[in-house]
Write a structure and sequence with these properties.
By secondary structure, this protein is mostly helical. The chain has two helices and two strands, in the order αββα. The chain has one domain.
Length: about 80
């Protein structure tokens, strides 16, 4: 039977793994879209399309990242509470 300290350590290891993957996705989106956006070189309402796509697309991905984090950590919290009962 794992001790409470072991369960707590396992909980935080899982939480940090989720955070690490989501931060890696954030990094890829932030720099990947910014790096690839200038290739879309036509104007869209007076702005370069690459700039517009990067700005709007990145915001959508950031909201999805927050939603995935919230859902995943809620499930992890519920599983951890079940382990402590």
């Amino acid at each position: 039977m794992p001790t409470p300290a072991d369960r707590h350590r396992r909980y935080w290891a899982r939480n940090l793994r989720v955070v690490g993957w989501l931060l890696a996705l954030w990094l890829a989106v932030t720099f990947g879209i910014g790096w690839g956006a200038p290739a879309l070189a036509f104007d869209f309402f007076g702005w370069p399309f690459g700039f517009w796509a990067a700005a709007q697309g990145a915001l959508v991905v950031y909201v999805v990242i927050v939603a995935v984090y919230a859902r995943t950590v809620n499930r992890l919290d519920q599983a951890h509470e079940d382990d402590t009962d």
